[in-house]
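Narrative of activities, Objective 1.

The group set out to show that a structural description can be obtained from nothing but a protein's sequence at a throughput compatible with the screening campaign. Below is one input-output pair from the validation batch, recorded exactly as produced.
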Amino acid sequence: MPFSRVAFVAADGEPAREALASLTQKYGQQKPEDADVIVALGGDGFMLEAVHNYIDLKKPIFGMHRGSVGFLMNRYEESDFMQRLGKATEVAIHPLRMTAVTADGKSHEALAINEVSMLRQTRQAAKIRIIIDGKERMSELSCDGVLMCTPAGSTAYNLSVHGPVLPLGSNVLALTPISAFRPRRWRGAILQHTAVVRFVMQEHEKRPVSAVADRDEVRDVVEVTVREDRTRSMRLLFDPEHNLEERIVAEQFEP
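Output recorded for this entry:
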């Protein structure tokens, strides 16, 4: 689809700031709310930040790699930039919605494009009860933590703790333990995207746990519920040759 009004946003690093100056000089600059497309300059972390910041605008976001990790980013190239935008393919990603209840009884909500993770706050292992769609599946997971991720996030933190890589469009979510102590051999589960997962912290006063949805952290949680939010959608644009689906498959064969 053609785009004529572009909003460039950049991370704080020098390569991203230099790219911002050069691109705005060549192609102009719009406010994100007035633009047809938002172009994020940085790494994957900044891409996630941009998606969170502009999700309510419902504008497509095209990322270009000017940071460190660039799995979600297209290559950086200034020439024929508007033609590239016109040829880009769109991928819709639905986030996870986290509802976390803290020890003081307060409820906190946040969205996650990558994952929602529960992490122990002290030297002692967390003990977490796992309930899926109202049925207890694990009475006690003793661990450093546990996470639930989207297909888009399966190659991030999830992969680093040996979770499965999920193809885009697979309509599944991954539930992955982080350094499980008991049951020691449990490696997690793959769930339908409709699953509602409730995590109940055992002995929460003695074994405090924090819950993190991408960039939002809630400490001293006693219960966390995670589900996919199909009412929200992130529109990401990729060069045809980038092919995010292919990159996710290829990631599983990296040495």
